Amino acid sequence: MTIGGLDIGSRTIALVEMEGERILRGEVIATTFDPLEQCRRLLENRSFEVLVATGYGRHLAQANFADSTITEIKAFALGCYSIFPECRTILDIGGQDTKAISLAPSGKVADFQMNDRCAAGTGKFLEVMAAAMGLTIEEMGRIALETEAEVKISSMCTVFAESEVTGLIARGTPRPEIARGLHEAICDRAVSLLKRVGVEREVVFAGGVAKNPCLKALLEKRLGLPLLVPEEPQLVGAMGAALSALQ
User: Which of 122, 143, 158, 246 is most buried, by CB atoms within 10 Å?
Assistant: First the structure.
């Protein structure tokens, strides 16, 4: 049985093709201003017995080509649990939202918290802050690890934080210290969300921001335990969507 899982997010769209529980291939592309056309590009010359969609655009997909939909919370729970059966807590930081999910030993969702009302502490936030410093996201993460010193960022609002960073640069504050402060602020927000659902081992870090080594290191230090990161953290939601068709 060939199953497709499609995760249509605000910044990226991920497609996973599976045969039973075995992944055949996965692909991630930018959402752009036309997510429907991007989905059609991903699905071109591919056929599935069942296609399940998740993410912000799941209803758009169902209206056009998906057979069914699943919420992001359930999709990430299924995806993470299939990769790490010992998983009990999930942190997903994506393009424009952050999710903290608590799982029962069976893999079912026990509780969750979601910050989706602003882009603070998400991938979009990192993009804007990196651009304000004239860096790529990768460069910003790298230089943040070069120092223990940090500048406290007083606002997590993307617009105000960008102005704050611009002002710090104008005053000659070293960029590594600014970068470190930004990562610490994101870490504060993520840990606060995790504590609302309770942090139990093992903890899985998923979503595009899980590729950021600085944030992973800071979170591990703050939580006092290692984080499990999937080999392809951006495919977890799409994988969970596909797996839901087997249930």
Answer: 122
Measured over the CA atoms of residue 32, residue 165, residue 211 and residue 73, the dihedral's sign is negative
Distance CA 65, CA 36 (A): 10
Domains and CATH numbers, the chain: 1-84+231-247 (3.30.420.40), 86-229 (3.30.420.40)
Q: Tell me the pLDDT of the chain (247 aa) as tens digits.
A: 899 999 999 899 999 999 988 999 999 999 999 999 999 999 999 999 999 999 999 999 999 999 999 999 999 999 999 999 999 999 999 988 999 999 999 999 999 999 866 767 788 899 999 999 999 988 999 999 999 888 999 888 888 999 999 999 999 999 999 999 999 999 999 999 999 999 999 999 999 999 999 999 999 999 999 999 999 999 999 999 999 999 8
d(C-alpha 66, C-alpha 48), whole Å: 10
- pTM exceeds 0.85: yes
Give the integer Cα–Cα distance in Å for 114 and 72.
Answer: 11
Give dist(CA 210, CA 208) in Å, integer: 5
